[in-house]
Specification:
Shape: rod-shaped
Number of domains: 2
Strand order of the largest sheet: 1-2
Order of helices and strands: HHHHHHHEE
Strand content: under 5%
Helix content: 55-70%
Distance between the termini: 115 Å
Largest sheet: 2 strands, antiparallel
């Protein structure tokens, strides 16, 4: 039997007359075998119900918060890829609608994930790509001219 059932049964049987004394005595004996009293069981069940009510209330509050969150804004606020793409010097990316920006982000993320093992490095909050090596012009040597010969 569950403690909720026993607690409710006890509360309904108490004060109902001598005929209900037999089931109450039996319940008291069974509870005593578990080192419990009727009062302690009712108290524990009340505490459990209060804890459950707080937990459910917190869950409902969390669901309301999640429902009220603008997930588009959230993603665009925390995304490092978004931050980088918004630095587009021409400003084209910022003018796109959310769905297009979202597709761009996903493509960049997939590309970066695939390239990460090959070339890229994560530096702080930025993904950096190796810079192409630039050839330095060789030091000019003076060619002999007809004047120096």
């Amino acid at each position: 039997m569950s403690s909720a059932f026993v607690a409710e049964l006890v509360l309904r049987l108490q004060g109902q007359g001598p005929a209900q004394a037999i089931p109450l005595t039996w319940l008291e004996q069974r509870l005593a075998e578990m080192s419990l009293t009727i009062e302690r069981l009712v108290q524990l069940e009340g505490q459990q119900q209060a804890e459950d009510q707080v937990s459910i209330s917190n869950s409902i509050g969390s669901l309301r918060f999640l429902d009220g969150t603008d997930w588009r804004e959230f993603v665009e606020t925390i995304s490092v890829v978004e931050e980088t793409l918004r630095e587009d010097p021409a400003g084209v990316y910022s003018q796109m609608d959310f769905a297009t920006r979202d597709r761009y982000r996903h493509v960049v993320e997939r590309t970066a994930a695939g390239a990460a093992s090959r070339n890229g490095r994560w530096r702080g909050r930025r993904w950096t790509w190796p810079q192409p090596h630039r050839c330095r012009p060789a030091a000019r040597t003076r060619r002999p001219t007809s004047a120096t010969i």
